[in-house]
Design brief:
Length: 209
């Protein structure tokens, strides 16, 4: 049985039709208009996540140092993406992304990767440096934004000494966030999305691909 969402009479439909990302001014206006409180309003927004300006979870990334790769890595497939990205960002500006085909029977990782490159989406994807910084925030922060999903860092695909292509991913395990490497010929469903900087990030002009 699914969790029952709080109701506010005829106001429920209005709340559910709001966009996922709102400014603090818009949230406050919504609260005044609907006569509810901030905690209850945020709980039933699509995705259950706070808006960009209210997250308060800032990720800081040291781009000056090369991240640690597996010892059997022989090649980085997109070296131009290795240290690309902001020195800090708000977690609410990061969104999970998956291909439509991942919702059905799943999609091979290699096909997801090729699609990201062909459509130039890879330039907005997070890399291994971002993954280490997110992992350092701990499992509570990770689950707040991504629940129990395994999230993929497609900007850091590598080739190992057996010529296998692998992509790093984060996943919660007990009290920790772990980092693994997935073979690109495994199938990925919609619970294994890419992490990318979403529209709110580009809107505020903090980074350009």
């Amino acid at each position: 049985m699914g969790q029952r969402a709080p109701t506010f009479g005829g106001k429920m439909e209005t709340l559910l039709n709001l966009p996922r990302q709102l400014s603090s001014q818009e949230v406050n206006a919504m609260i005044r208009k609907l006569g509810t409180d901030e905690k209850s309003a945020l709980r039933i927004l699509p995705g259950g996540h706070p808006p960009k300006s209210m997250s308060g979870c800032i990720i800081r990334v040291n781009r000056s140092m090369r991240p640690a790769y597996p010892s059997n890595m022989v090649d980085l497939m997109d070296p131009e993406m290795e240290r690309k990205g902001p020195s800090k960002f708000d977690m609410a500006q990061v969104e999970p992304w998956f291909h439509e085909s991942q919702k059905d029977a799943g999609m091979k990782g290699i096909d997801v990767y090729r699609f990201l490159k062909r459509k130039n989406i890879l330039t907005s994807c997070l890399n291994l440096q971002d993954g280490y910084a997110i992992r350092a925030k701990g499992v509570a922060v990770y689950r707040r934004f991504f629940e129990n999903q395994a999230t993929f860092l497609w900007a850091s695909v590598i080739k190992d000494n057996f010529t296998n292509l692998k992509v790093p991913f984060l996943f919660p395990c007990g009290r920790k966030v772990l980092l693994g490497w997935n073979w690109l010929f495994n199938f990925l469903d919609s619970n294994r999305p890419a992490l990318r900087f979403g529209d709110q990030y580009w809107k505020f002009g903090q980074m350009r691909p």
